[in-house]
Amino acid sequence: MRDIADRLGVSSVTVSKALNDKDGVSDELKEKIKVLAVEMGYRYNATARSMKEGLTHNIGVIIPERFTGPTQSFYVRVFQRITRHLEDQGYYGILHILNEEDEEGLTLPKLYSDNKVDGFIVLGQISKEYIELVRSMDVPKMFLDFYDEHSDIDSVVTDNFYAAYELTNVLVQQGHRSIAYVGNLYSTSSIQDRFLGYYKSLLEHRMPMNPDLILNDRDERGTFIEIDLPESLPTAFVCNCDQVAHLLVQKLTSLGIQVPQQCSVVGFDNDIYALLSEPKLTTVEVDVEQMARTAVQSMLKKVDNPNRNFGRVHVKGNIIYRDSVSAAPETLEMQSPTSI
Amino acid sequence: MRDIADRLGVSSVTVSKALNDKDGVSDELKEKIKVLAVEMGYRYNATARSMKEGLTHNIGVIIPERFTGPTQSFYVRVFQRITRHLEDQGYYGILHILNEEDEEGLTLPKLYSDNKVDGFIVLGQISKEYIELVRSMDVPKMFLDFYDEHSDIDSVVTDNFYAAYELTNVLVQQGHRSIAYVGNLYSTSSIQDRFLGYYKSLLEHRMPMNPDLILNDRDERGTFIEIDLPESLPTAFVCNCDQVAHLLVQKLTSLGIQVPQQCSVVGFDNDIYALLSEPKLTTVEVDVEQMARTAVQSMLKKVDNPNRNFGRVHVKGNIIYRDSVSAAPETLEMQSPTSI
DNA sequence: CTGAAAGCGCTTACAG
DNA sequence: CTGAAAGCGCTTACAG
Q1: Beta carbon of B334 within 7 Å of strand C?
Q2: Counting CB atoms within 10 angstroms of each CB, which of A111, A178, B33, B217 has the fewest?
Q3: Out of 3.40.50.150, 3.40.640.10, 1.10.3720.10, 3.40.50.2300, which CATH number does the structure's domain A160-282+321-337 have?
């Protein structure tokens, strides 16, 4: 900047104003300065501004390692959207993959202790203990795609409840009266909320909830376990995620049960498993774009004003209709007397 | 720092030295300062140091968007290793996913124009035009997992040549004499080098190269195409990657050809497709850890001294033996006269 | 419309 | 072993 100023015989203040398009410089001079800057290959020193402002213009994005494995591109996609929105605002996203060791050992990212970021977006459920640690950080933070009832940290989540409710409604409308839910209710808030949406649909249609039709799919550590099918098979399954729906379809098929003719199955997430499955899964697509945008906007407002609070923001999902749902078998028979 | 200094009645210089474990402060005072720092919740301001040093202690990692899709966790894993090694050296990795638009429009990352990083590691093949653009950047840069013959940019790559050579040798040792190579030789340097390793093995064993046995797998834009099998089927296939090997196995199986009994197939990468395949693929595992370590070390040396050059560094891969290879059919018959 | 001065929080080189 | 001074490259508040 000084070099540019010297070459033009003006002060560095003027150059700064021109390059930032601020008032107080004639348009003519501004233009001259900008042209020369490009010519001289000038690159803005963001560090100097950070120093002055006390703001790094970086936001840390924390993703637990277990959500980054093979076949798990979802969070990477979300991260990508986040950075795009951040860049639109002159910010950068710095990805921090939280490994198990640090999560269990309650180690804060060096990003924090080195003052490298102005705030954190945590993308994906972390342990209760780590949530407490995150709370203790003296910067704005928010949770994305999960929340914790005991903390006051702002969060942006898919409207799991309503999406599961609507998806179950679809099954009911197709004549299903015996519908199972597949998922460990104590594992994540997503699974819980999706279950409650399923339950709301049952309630609304005066269908009893049968505890035998709530099927566990994973142990406490999130590892998938064999699904125990009930004695008397339901005609439809609401699965908490596509991967489990995929496993379930495989299991049913291997038992000689046809999907969707004999059993309908729906998933959640619209990830690779929804397409890998045979038949392809009817499922719910998360609105990644909207979630990323909301999280970034809220975060930047919090950076400006640390007292801003947004609470829990729900983003609606979209049902994707594919081939894993059909009318309930009994209904089919009733509807087609020709088959008698 | 000033606050700490004031509370202890010393200067901020002394505090700085103590916190950085430099000479010139008594051990006693150092200890006192460190304790107080923790007590006061002091967080180091990395920005200030950056300002002074003219170094951001950040390294940009550029991954082309097309390598981050579903089922492509490889580069994310590499990124994770890179950041781990960077952190060990007091550095941070900033991920920049290069979207197609920016790659075609030759837009440099804002990370560069904002002086946010001290160097770039490009992870995954980019277009020739973009390579030229990268060259024009006035910071240290290096390529990871690919290289370009026309540029003098340092690179770290898997030793594709030798790994493919060794893998082909394995097939030859199993009695195979008609071995195909599957891959578009004009697509990436990896595919080319793997082909040459395959060719070297043929040469060494005095086996003629049959052009009909070089099978294309993708078009210019990298989209997979249907593989055209030759009239007379070889007894083994060396595929340039696991995904293509997986597709090939599916195709062979659907044609009623048994793998590996009638045809052996080997892949490359040891990714999710190697395990998805039935039978599981014999393949080459890239030494991610070693590649990441080498890239980071070289990069940091270049940051210290921009004139340092490392050229092309090859990292050896490991063959993973699974179930997609068996002895050549004719050999089998010769070996087991009991079957007559 | 233009610029001199101060300051962001560190580190380095030097003096004591 | 300890500290006063200068400086990294910007921006902001103020004076002209």
Answers
A1: no
A2: A178
A3: 3.40.50.2300
Q: Which residues pair with B285 in a beta bridge?
A: B269, B318
* A55-153+288-316 topology per CATH: Rossmann fold (3.40.50)
Q: Is the dihedral of CA A108, A113, A114, A117 positive or negative?
A: positive
Q: Are strands A318-320 and A283-285 parallel, antiparallel or unpaired?
A: antiparallel
Nearest to B70 among A51, A73, A111 (CB): A73
B47 touching A, CB under 8 A? yes
DSSP secondary structure letter of residue A225: -
Residue carrying the six token digits 């070390």: B297
> What does the alpha-carbon distance between residue A315 and residue A157 come to, in Å, rounded to a whole number?
6
Distance CA B225, CA A216 (A): 41
What's the CATH superfamily of B55-157+288-315?
A: Response regulator (3.40.50.2300)
Closest CA to B204 of B174, B166, B163, B233: B166
DSSP string, A248-311: HHHHHHHTT--TTTT-EEE-SB--HHHHHSSSPPBEEE--HHHHHHHHHHHHHHHHH-TT----
Residue B265 bridge partners (DSSP): B237
The pLDDT score that the predictor gives to residue A5 is 83
What CATH number is given for B160-286+321-339 in this structure? Answer: 3.40.50.2300
- Only one residue has tokens 């981050």, namely B68
**What are the residues whose beta carbons fall under 8 Å from the beta carbon of A206, sequence distance 6 or more?**
none
Distance of alpha carbon A328 from alpha carbon B303, whole angstroms:
66
For domain A2-44, say whether CATH 1.10.510 is its number.
no
User: CA B44, C1' C16: Å apart?
Assistant: 29
Residues 123-162 (A) near nucleic chain C, CB < 7 A: none
How many other CB atoms are found less than 10 A from the CB of residue A29? 15
- Percentage with pLDDT > 90 across chain B: 76
Quote the CA–CA distance of A36 and B42 in Å, as a whole number: 42
Reading the block at residue A116, the tokens are 């490298």
Measured between alpha carbons, how far is B279 from B186 in angstroms, rounded to an integer? 29
Q: For residue B120, how many other CB atoms are within 10 A of its CB?
A: 25
Could you tell me the two tokens for A309? 């609070």
Confidence of residue B331 (pLDDT cuts 50, 70, 90): low
Where do we find the tokens 């003519």?
Answer: A28
The separation, in Å, between residue B110 CA and nucleotide C13 C1' comes to 35
**CA–CA separation, A101 and B23 (whole Å):** 33
Structural domain boundaries of chain B?
2-44, 55-157+288-315, 160-286+321-339
What letter represents residue B337's amino acid?
P
If you ran DSSP here, which 8-state letter would residue B212 be given? G
Please name the residue that has the structure tokens 């210019």.
B220
Q: Do the first three CATH levels of A2-44 and A55-153+288-316 match, i.e. the same topology?
A: no
Residues with Cβ within 8 Å of A132's Cβ and at least 6 positions away in sequence, in order, are A151
Q: What's the CA gap between A124 and A181, in Å, rounded?
A: 22
Q: pLDDT tens across A161-197, in order? A: 999 999 999 999 999 999 999 999 998 888 999 999 9
CB of B76 within 8 Å of a chain A CB? The answer is: yes
Residue B26 near residue B10, CB atoms below 8 Å: no
Nearest to B299 by CA among B286, B314, B310: B310
Q: What is the dihedral of CA B129, B131, B133, B134, to 10 degrees?
A: 170
Residue A13 contacts strand C, CB under 7 A: yes
What are the phi and psi torsion angles at A51 (to 5°)? -55, -45
Task: Tell me: pLDDT of B334 over 80.
Answer: no
Residue B199 has pLDDT above 70, yes or no: yes
